[in-house]
Amino acid sequence: MTTGRRVWLGPAGVTALEAASLVVGFLTQLLLMRSLGPAGYGQCVLAVAVGVGLSTLTDFGFNFSGTRQAVHWAGEPARRHRLFWAVQLTKLGVGGCALSVMALIPGSGPLLPAAAISVLGAILFPTWYLMARARLLVAAGTLLAGRVAALGAIALWVREPQDIGLGSVLNCAAPLVAVALASMDPELRGVRQPCRLQANELGRAFRLGASTVWINAVPALGNAMVQALIGALGSHATLGQYAAADKVRAAIQGLFGALGQALFPASVAAADGARPRNRLPVVLLALACAAALPLALAPEFIIGVVAGSGFSEAAGALRVMSLAVISSTAVLGLGTLHLLAHSLDAAYARAVFAGLLVQAAALAALVPAFGAAGAAGALWIADLAALAAMVPALRRR
Length: 397
Fold this sequence. Notes:
globular; 397 residues; PolySynth_Transporter; disordered N terminus; mainly alpha
């Protein structure tokens, strides 16, 4: 088997499983949209976005920094074992602190159940370690099983707008099912015995995660901020219309996100000189262009199938978001597979923060005038700002 085929074989399997997850995700969101209506769905989306933000913060950058370290220690099982428990204990502390702070915020009560389930799943499911140990299919397969279980529960128990809280919790519960299944994997059985750690080991783990915590946490927390801004600048119904379109985009974007993350270890190896020049971002971007075309050509049909009646405004937002599929994939590909693979973390951080600031300003300008379509345009503008901020670092490569 050639080197190129080895690089793509595991990620291709992960992408196939993620494609199946897209189908499950579409069905889940379809059920929620039709059961809760635009306003109720907007509230559900906000609760889930906060949960995702806190769970991503709980992961604390280890999906990149922990993966990199475990890849470097591939031949040292004892060090990896200690790293595993140092990372998991750090995640426990970070997640507990994040939930405690959130509980102190006035009006956060309705959001807490979904947030707590999300944080617990992030603590227990070691995505970073499965990635580093080339157990990509295990991670993707068990998460798919968890999403199927959540879909079944939503179909059974979420029937009307009053079920917003239950729908939000079930929407965040997939990692808890996944960890029960993944715990049978030999790689996780090999590290399940806790070890006694020194304080300095926990300190090193904290610093390791802190070096890349912003990579996923800032966009996820930024997404929660975006949902809140759209609701405040428009209404819960505006947020529901935007979210209906964004769920279609995010499902496709999630596919490329999973593929990009699966290709990250190979990109690290390419940056270390173990493989030829890294062309993975170019391939990723070409695939995104193909995926964006149906969103631009038939948004009304897609929204009609996914959301049903009452979400007509989402079609215009989805057409705009077809551009964001391409721009967001470019940010992902160039950021993670080039900048992070070469340990240019600060350059990527500046780009992410620049995009988030520009998006907030664009939302303030566009949502009152253009509603959900304006919010979609703000996402595309933010990606362009992030790409522009990456240019200086990319030129140095």
